[in-house]
Prior knowledge:
Layout: E1 2-11, E2 15-25, E3 30-34, H1 41-48, E4 56-61, E5 64-65, H2 74-80, E6 81-84, H3 96-107, H4 111-124, H5 140-152, E7 158-162, H6 170-185, E8 189-194, H7 197-202, E9 206-211, E10 214-220
Parallel strand pairs: 3-8, 3-9, 6-7, 7-8
Antiparallel strand pairs: 1-2, 1-4, 4-5, 9-10
Helix pairs in contact: 3-4, 3-5, 4-5
Amino acid sequence: MIEFSHVYKTYPGPVQALKNINLKIEKGEFVFLTGPSGAGKTTLFKVMSAYLKPSSGNIKVAGYDLNKIKSNEIPFFRRRIGVVYQDFKLLKDRTVYENISLPLEIRGDKNSYIYDKTNDMIEQVGLTHKKFMFPQQLSGGEQQRVAIARALVHQPGVLVADEPTGNLDPELSEEIMDLLDKVNAQGTTVFCATHDHDLVKRRSKKVLDINSGIIVEKKIG
Length: 221
Ligand SMILES: Nc1ncnc2c1ncn2[C@@H]1O[C@H](COP(=O)(O)OP(=O)(O)OP(=O)(O)O)[C@@H](O)[C@H]1O
Ligand SMILES: [Mg+2]
């Protein structure tokens, strides 16, 4: 389902952000990616969601070989995955409802389906009372929950979440992790970066630890 072989990414500088990454995540697995700031977590997620090209190596995700993917196939590839960005990337001029429904609008789903599914997701992340507010009217944690709902609304086979609990208090973090567990139980592969070692300890999942662009440890958390 997700496979990296000999993946390198070098930014101008040069900064070697990823060095010989080899990993395999099977369909339906839940895997944490831990590592200090600057270790390469976001870079790893960007190359696996086709936002950045690796400098070398091969990546396969959701049946797509990202080395061979054509630019006109990328929108179809993106429908197969859900991405929660570290900086949310919410549209400032759209409401909570409009941000979350966007992937379904783009896909051209029926209006009644969009309405029901979007409201269901909004309820699952506990934002029904903020449905018609704009991102700048929300707290950091609320914006984070909008980003999570938007990443899940189209029921992707793979969810990539970059620090999805980074701005949440412990209680809300647990709720969000429960939500990720629930989508995982329904069959979605979850790959989740986090700084929060206590959170990782409380959930027994596979953990990949990255440091200076190298996967240094693989363990069951
Ligand atoms: N566009 C860029 N140009 C040059 N260097 C970059 C760029 N983006 C990231 N880097 C560098 O690549 C390395 C990995 O960055 P990355 O954002 O992947 O780390 P991270 O593990 O996500 O960190 P954090 O936990 O702080 O989010 C860092 O040294 C960073 O400074
Ligand atoms: Mg990051």
